[in-house]
Automatic annotation (TrEMBL):
InterPro entries: CBFA_NFYB_domain, Histone-fold, Transc_fact_NFYB/HAP3, Transcrpt_fac_NFYB/HAP3_CS. Gene3D superfamilies: Histone, subunit A (1.10.20.10). Residues 1-20, 116-137 are annotated as: Disordered. This is Transcription factor CBF/NF-Y/archaeal histone domain-containing protein. Residues 1-16 have a biased composition (Low complexity). One of its GO terms (molecular function) is RNA polymerase II cis-regulatory region sequence-specific DNA binding. Residues 116-126 have a biased composition (Basic and acidic residues). GO terms for cellular component: CCAAT-binding factor complex. Belongs to the NFYB/HAP3 subunit family. Residues 24-88 form the Transcription factor CBF/NF-Y/archaeal histone domain. It comes from Acacia crassicarpa (northern wattle).
Length: 137
């Protein structure tokens, strides 16, 4: 019998009953990110977007799980940016961990500056943070 309107077991993918729509990044966001790196006239198939959606969602879960395990061992409940950087490095993604650490450091500096100037809505300085090494068009 079909499970109309509900989540079938095949959509849960062994993620503790999490629905696929809650497990995956929105496909429109994935497509938008993919288009940023491609020439303007390039097209992206639905299959390519769906494949990338699965990959990036799995990658985020993989890194977050590693960071969460670290926090659990340290008896902390909150995963922070340093934990994510640690997890990336631990999992062998140093090419991403190092730029992310630099970004995080600069972000924190700007947050302190912003707090000192009492302008919490001024986010333009984030555009001045050095690139994470990912090419953008």
């Amino acid at each position: 019998m079909d499970n109309v309107g509900g989540s079938s077991s095949s959509n849960n993918n062994d993620n503790s009953g999490i629905k696929e729509q809650d497990r995956l990044l929105p496909i429109a966001n994935v497509g938008r990110i993919m288009k940023q790196i491609l020439p303007q006239n390039a097209k992206i198939s639905k299959e390519a977007k769906e494949t990338m959606q699965e990959c990036v969602s799995e990658f985020i879960s993989f890194v977050t799980s590693e960071a969460s395990d670290k926090c659990r061992k340290e008896r902390r409940k909150t995963v922070n940016g340093d934990d994510v950087c640690w997890a990336l490095a631990t999992l062998g993604f140093d090419d991403y961990a190092d730029p992310l650490r630099r970004y995080l450091h600069r972000f924190r500096e700007l947050e302190v500056d912003r707090a000192n100037t009492n302008d919490p809505h001024d986010r333009d300085d984030l555009d001045q943070i050095p690139s994470t090494g990912v090419r953008q068009s």
